[in-house]
Each structure stands twice: as structure tokens, then as C-alpha cells.
Design brief:
Radius of gyration: 26 Å
Order of helices and strands: HHEEEHEHEEEEEHHEHEEHHH
Low-confidence stretches: 1-24, 341-353, 361-373
Distance between the termini: 79 Å
Structural class: alpha+beta
Number of helices: 10
Number of domains: 3
Number of strands: 12
Shape: globular
Mean pLDDT: 80
Helix content: 25-40%
Length: 380
């Protein structure tokens, strides 16, 4: 026992020493913004005071652009996320981007509050700052999608065991329900209405979620984790979905309220994604959200394909034209069908879709009747 104890103590000591060495070797103290700015905030970066923060911002491109583009980064990112986009846009458009509170070089929120209400206050103050600097410039914002059924990520997999073709495995005429550990601590099938996202495929392929009765049944017996419950991270319960939807609705309410107060048009991106729930057939071509082959989404099941992004861009273009009496042409989809022909079962060489058919798809979501030309209100 003494030998065992000595070995254990020695192992713990060795691990502690290795950890301390790693920590000492790799640890570095926080560096002040003034030191980081030399590398990450060269021209055209500027810092402006907004809502008690020194906000890192870049304003580039065509100075007299009537409708500047404002790009907001996501979580754990910074304005540098948009570098490639800005390079492509700034020769034709004015592009504004900035670091949100707690990210990049903007630094922390003064009160340490990063809830939606605080972000609304910050973005409101930032919009007012931009409006004050360019009172005649047009702006546009878009809503966020709310329907889990509109993207492959959360609408492809069933809540039963699947085969390599992602279709349910049928045993004795019935599918095999996946199981997990329920809220009361007992094993049971996933709550009705749950969603299994595409990100769960790796665990499903290893047998997670398959009931213990299948541990001795080929081919399930060959999977290393058959009989183990599906981890909580691999499904979204109806209660969790409701929380997500409510939060997104909160964001959309904030977006539309802020926009209405400043006479800024809103592109109905939520409505666009809602239309993806069912297949769209125009010009002899069917577009759908179907994973891999539908044509609207890329192979990660989350981001749009170039066809999908063209439709996405057209929503903004149509909203701009309607609000500001401009005549920006919507994106032509002909070239995108040519580039993505394999997704629809035909090769790029034999694409025959006409420009008229592509135009019909481009205006699938009807543009509202032309409105009188307006300028965004300066006084608000």
C-alpha cells in the first residue's frame, strides 16, 4: 500500500509540475488596448466614444454612398471577421464595421451587462452616432429567422435511429426511437417534438441513443456506444426551442422598433427563411432546404449556398428600392444555376434555364408597391 501511495503521490506531483510548467510557459498578462492597437487598429481604424465605451470602428469605401453597409460580427469575433467582405465591397460601397462590447478592441461593457437590453442600448447609441455623422445616408436592417424547420441543420434528422442514407431504420415494421435520460433521471424516448441537429451525426454513428436491447443485435452490436443515452447536447427539446424562438423574437422586436423610430427600412429575412420550409419550383427548377441536394444551403446545412445568398441579397435590394425609390437590379440567378447544376441533377454544360425563369425566381417574394421617395428622419 505504501508503494502504491508513493506512486500516486509521485504521479500527482509530476502532473502538478507539468501543469505549472505549461502555465508559466504559456501564460501572459492582459495587454492594454494601446499596445494591441499598433497591430490590430492601424488606419483606417478609429476609436469613438459611445455609451461610455471607446469603440473600435472602421469606415471605408465610397464616401458618398447613399446606403452605407453596416456589418456586425458574431460571438467571439471582431470587426476583422469582415475583412474579405470589405475588400470586395469597398470599391463600390461605403462599409462600416465596429467591435461590439466585450470583443476586439472595444473592451468590456462598463457595467458588465451583456444581456439583450444592453446590446440594444449600445446599438441604438451607435446608430444615432452614425446618423449624426451622415444625416442623409440611407440605412437598412434585416430580421432574424425563427423557424427551425427552415434550415437543414435542424430539420433533416428524425428522432429515431437512422442509416447511412439518413433515413429511419425499420425493425418489424417500426422505427427505433432514440432514448436519453429524461429530466426526472429515468431513461426514455426523446420528448415529443424534439429536434436532433446534424451536429449529432457523429454520436449517432457510434450508437448513442440506441436502446440497450440492441447491444446484442447485429449490426448495432458493433457500435461502441449502443445502449448509452443520447447526450443532452445532441437534441433540442420543445421547451428549449421555445426559449430560442422567444429570444430571437425579442431581437426582431428590438430591430424593427429601432428601425421604425429612425425611418430605416427592414428587409424581411425571417419571412424569406419561412418560405424555405416547403420546396420552391420556378422555371422548371425546384429549390429546397434538403440537405446537400436542395440547392438553397451549403453542405454544412447552416449557411446559404450562393443561390440562397443571391435570394438573401435580393430581399435587401427590394427593400432598399421600395424605401428609397432606387432602381437597383436584383441579382440574376442564371450564373448560379450554371455553377450549381449538379445539385439539381444536371451538369453545368446542359443548363437551359432562361434569364426570364431566373428573374421569376429572383422576384419570388413580391416587391411591395413602390412607395414615395423618402429620406430617413434626422430628428428622432
Amino acid at each position: 500500500m505504501k508503494i502504491v501511495a508513493v506512486i500516486i503521490v509521485g504521479a500527482v506531483f509530476a502532473i502538478t509540475v507539468l501543469f505549472a510548467r505549461f502555465f508559466i510557459t504559456n501564460w501572459a498578462p492582459d495587454r492594454p488596448v494601446s499596445e494591441l492597437a499598433a497591430r490590430w487598429a492601424p488606419s483606417p481604424s478609429v476609436f469613438i466614444d459611445v455609451a461610455g465605451m471607446h469603440v473600435h470602428m472602421r469606415d471605408e469605401g465610397v464616401r458618398d454612398d447613399p446606403s452605407p453597409i453596416v456589418l456586425l460580427h458574431g460571438t467571439a469575433a471582431s470587426l476583422h471577421t469582415w475583412e474579405g467582405w470589405v475588400d470586395a465591397l469597398k470599391t463600390r460601397r461605403r462599409v462600416i464595421r465596429f467591435d461590439l462590447p466585450g470583443f476586439g478592441l472595444t473592451g468590456p461593457s462598463p457595467d458588465g451587462n451583456y444581456g439583450i437590453e444592453n446590446y440594444v442600448r449600445f446599438v441604438t447609441a451607435m446608430l444615432d452616432k452614425l446618423i449624426a455623422g451622415a444625416p442623409n445616408a440611407g440605412m437598412i436592417v434585416g430580421t432574424l429567422p425563427t423557424d427551425f424547420r427552415s434550415v437543414p441543420l435542424t430539420s433533416t434528422l428524425p428522432t429515431v435511429a437512422i442509416g447511412p442514407n439518413l433515413q429511419p431504420i425499420i425493425v418489424n415494421g417500426n422505427p427505433i426511437p432514440l432514448f436519453t435520460i429524461l429530466a426526472d433521471g429515468t431513461p426514455g424516448p426523446l420528448p415529443a417534438g424534439s429536434i436532433v441537429p446534424l451536429s449529432a451525426i457523429t454520436d449517432l454513428q457510434q450508437g448513442y441513443g440506441l436502446p440497450p436491447q440492441l447491444k446484442a443485435v447485429p449490426p448495432f452490436s458493433a457500435l461502441p456506444h449502443t445502449g448509452e443515452p443520447l447526450p443532452d447536447k445532441d437534441f433540442i427539446t420543445p421547451a428549449e426551442q421555445a426559449i430560442f424562438v422567444q429570444r430571437i423574437n425579442d431581437y426582431n422586436t428590438a430591430i424593427t422598433t429601432l428601425a421604425a423610430a429612425r425611418n430605416i427600412p427592414v428587409a424581411d429575412i425571417s419571412g424569406l427563411f419561412n418560405s424555405f420550409v416547403t420546396p420552391l419550383s420556378f422555371g422548371g427548377v425546384t429549390l429546397s432546404k434538403t440537405f446537400i441536394s436542395g440547392g438553397l444551403f451549403s453542405d454544412d446545412g447552416t449557411h446559404l449556398s450562393d443561390i440562397g445568398y443571391a435570394l438573401f441579397a435580393n430581399q435587401y435590394i427590394k427593400a432598399i428600392n421600395s424605401a428609397y425609390a432606387t432602381t437597383i437590379p436584383v441579382a440574376s440567378l442564371t450564373q448560379f444555376f450554371t455553377n450549381n447544376g449538379q445539385n439539381f441533377g444536371f451538369g453545368a454544360a446542359n443548363v437551359t434555364i432562361s434569364e426570364e425563369a431566373a428573374r421569376n425566381i429572383g422576384i419570388l417574394w413580391a416587391t411591395p408597391p413602390p412607395a414615395p421617395h423618402r429620406l430617413r428622419r434626422v430628428g428622432h
